[in-house]
Amino acid sequence: EKGGYPSFMEKEINDQPDAVAQTLLGRSDADGNLTLDEIRVDPSVLKNIDRIIVLACGTSAYAGQVARYAIEHWCRIPTEVELSHEFRYRDPIVDENTLIVSISQSGETMDTLMAVRYAREQGAKTVAICNTNGSTIPRESDAVLYTHAGPEIAVASTKAFLAQITAAYLLGLYLAQLRGNLFQGQIKDILAELAKTPAKIATVLENADQIKELARSMADTRSVLFLGRHVGYPVAMEGALKLKELAYIHAEGFAAGELKHGPIALIEEGQPVIVVVPSPRGRDSLHSKVVSNIQEVRARGAKTIVIAEEGDESVKAYAEHVFYVPETSTLLAPLLTTVPLQIFALELASAKGFDVDQPRNLAKSVTVE
Ligand code: M6R
């Protein structure tokens, strides 16, 4: 059942090309146009929404944070991501023009269920992105967009995360199509680029030996910092969460731009810092800013480990270790850059002899508030 792998987690990491491919399957027609029949919310209602709130916890919330960049960019609808357990307690502003998008692998997370119920009571429309057929959150929502990642057994979420990003992107494209924010040709191009990601994830998996080796050599590490910017920021937080959960190592993810506002004080000789670098072909000088951040921490003694796009030579001078992922657009990069971070946590935890499928103190689905 583990498909020959030593753990479910390793199997699920390796299942990711398929998890993304399955989530895309049947959701565009022969001409490459998007068809999301399962979104059974009246299109006239969706045309009028003026706000999106994504509700989720843990890794699923990081998927929401990634998706927010794409949804706002494509649909021009203000989008927030809120941890489900914080949402209800701040007297949130929610009405019939608010679209609630819940993200949950299990569909049973009590915090998220209660937040969805609350939002519905306030008149909001609710769409669930979920990996578990017939679970409670989809049943209590107006519509559901299933991620077809297949059952996820390991407590630490991996393939569900990539499938959640994929599904949330499809939802964003669907809204953009419905509301006329993107031309049909643009939507087709993005779908075509998405369709190429499973093969690119497979490439990342095939080239994982070096990151495995590095992870195993770092079994005695006490703390690891993760930096990212734009979509790389939630990826950094996800990388840190994986390391905490599996290897019980103190890890924190930061927005790279926040470094100088405090966290840079943590940098001392030998402190490992993993940096998720945006594509040099991307917009808004994101890349050069992150490269400066690598220089800043390096100058203070950090051991710099960099995840960058294939062909990006500029990072080599500042990185002790560089791991390359294939080229893709800025918004799709998380589907690739997350994978080495998952492998890093898995290998480091395995080197320490920990049970990666059942980390201490954690449950696969958190059904209490
Ligand atoms: O089933 P859900 O997606 O609602 O679960 C949410 C979180 O509990 C979950 O992502 C948790 O953070 C995982 N252990 C992450 O690896």
UniProtKB/TrEMBL annotation:
GO terms for cellular component: cytosol. It catalyses: D-fructose 6-phosphate + L-glutamine = D-glucosamine 6-phosphate + L-glutamate. GO terms for biological process: carbohydrate metabolic process; fructose 6-phosphate metabolic process; protein N-linked glycosylation; UDP-N-acetylglucosamine metabolic process. Its main location: cytoplasm. The keyword Cytoplasm applies. The active site is at residue 364. The keyword Transmembrane does not apply. It is found in: Cytoplasm. One of its GO terms (molecular function) is carbohydrate derivative binding. Its EC number is 2.6.1.16. It is an enzyme of class 2 (transferase). Residues 41-181, 214-359 form the SIS domain. Keywords: Aminotransferase, Cytoplasm, Glutamine amidotransferase, Repeat, Transferase. Coiled coil: none annotated. Catalyzes the first step in hexosamine metabolism, converting fructose-6P into glucosamine-6P using glutamine as a nitrogen source. Homodimer. This is Glutamine--fructose-6-phosphate aminotransferase [isomerizing]. It comes from Arthrobacter psychrolactophilus. The chain holds residues 265 to 633 of 633 of the full protein.
